[in-house]
Batch of 3 targets.
Target 1
Amino acid sequence: MKTIVSGMRPTGSLHIGHYFGALKNWIDLQHHNQCYFTVVDWHALTSEFEDTRNIPAHTREMVADWLASGLDPNLCTIFLQSGVDAQSVLYLILGMFTPIGWLERNPTYKEQKEQIQHRDLSNLGFFAYPVLQTADILLYKGEKVPVGVDQVPHIELSREIARRFNRIAGEIFPEPEALLTPSPKISGTDGRKMSKSYGNAISLGEPSQELEKKVKAMVTDPNRIRRSDPGDPKQCNLFPLHELLSSKETQEEVIQGCTTAGIGCVDCKKMLLPSLEA
């Protein structure tokens, strides 16, 4: 058995990217590992510090989604980050061992500063959140951290912090390793990474009417300018959802119809909707 550590920020409704990118994997991992899954409410403060009123409600809703999806408290440990004081202490200590240059090169920090204009991210907490993330992992001697491929740089930074701490203070913490999720990257309705912060997400509890509206507006293969233009499902924002949700027969029909221009993008979206609604 390995020690698995992961968490989610309670900043809004969970979306299908959360489910396929993380939650589905957590459910499988809990059966064969020592798993710690945490509501990282301190991480939520990095972007929600000006108005924290919704964090408690989002926390309850998120954990309810975890349980409904199949996380079992008898098989894993589910807890609130802020309920463990030792995490803030370890965060402070690890901050003394972390060079500023390591944080400045964090690709997610740069990306979110560029993409998220409606929130004030010019705070120390947001800049140093990889150190808090490292404390989340190391406190429980986490060996594996289930992440998507875009999160691998974060885990590499955690490894560097652990390595530096161990070299200076003694061998205390294991160097955590990224455990890649088997699902492909789930893009949002606009083609960027699906994120609540970007306003491009399809939530797990999306009402049918809203779901249809969002799917109809999804960006597809940019080369299919006209209905008669053949497309390439590998370049399409929509097809990864077919791979996850649609039958093999439907996927083959989509591939055939798209590459020959036998069907249009609207047809492809209509074929996805029943599976996505289910």
Target 2
Amino acid sequence: LLQEVEAWAMSDYARALAQGATLSAEQRSAVAAKLHEYTGLPVDYILKADLRVNGPEFEHTLQLDTGTTTGRLDSRFSGPTMDPLSKAPDYDPMIAAFGSAYVSVFNDYVRKDLKYDSDRQFHLFADIKEWEFRHTVPGGAGGEQQQQTNVMPDLAMAMKLNPGLHVMLNGGYFDIGTPFYAAIYEMQHLTIPASLQQNIEYAFYNSGHMVYTHEDALKEMHTKVADFIRRTSSH
């Protein structure tokens, strides 16, 4: 099924989006029907969205008829919708389920093991205004900077500087934050010689953004990463 959807996304769907306003009503309906088949989103919603539905819209709308929001970092999680009239979800049910555990474990660890004693609170997510996301592109003319960081040019340069560098990409099938095929697409568009593509390996698991939250996936990832390190450490 995944191979079928990937092929459709890169062919019929991509061509339909590229046609823009010239896409016929018949073709538009056919694409919307196929998107409904693959995603479960209502056809009328897909048509209103002009065949373009982003992640947050998908999470909010998929189970809206039951008053349920779909998880972003792991779409197997769901929770009550905060505002049915919103365009996007107000929270991530996956974080709601796991967040407190991470905060508790971290606070316990830094105080009991690291002996760090402070009244400052650790927040799983914080609204920090000082983050600097601008990034200088390697080899960019005149020190070209990106407003939103994209390190794919950095990876491409590293692989060209060191042709013996091997890369392993691991991810979860149920991750909407960093979708699995988007990662493959990015890797396949690296500005590297075709011969270096063989240095890239992929492994995906029945888990979400944090693969390790699913015990079976954690064990599988450990095995595959350990094997990758052993096989490539001599290069």
Target 3
Amino acid sequence: MSAKSVRGSAIGYHQGHEFLKVLEKAGLTGDIAQDVINSRGNQKAKLMMSTLEGVILRDERFTLVKSFGMTVPENYESHNRLDIFRAECEKEFYYYNPNITDANYGHPSLKLSPGLKFMVKVFQITDTVSSDDCLKFLKAEKGVLL
């Protein structure tokens, strides 16, 4: 892949280099990779990059244990949910962080509402990871923090 073909495209040089490495791991030849990079508006490249990043560049420290669908119950009310959980379950934990309250987490990026459907994935962490590693992994998995 030439630097010129990447520079003139919608993805940057560094992204193009990383993308080429991903395509090579996937078994594509240089000619096919060049065709993808040169596609109109990089549509093929963008689609393949988003797909392959999740499959090939997956962090091996996180192992999928189980996945299942879940629907928010029809009678679910989001306000005061953390406070209610704490009142009902705090005694069951060795330690419960007193800062986990609705007042401190009252502005989620996605508000749960009755009937909303999710695919839940449970991962085992098989090696030492930082909080930033976990957040990067969740972003790569298109995870939602509630």
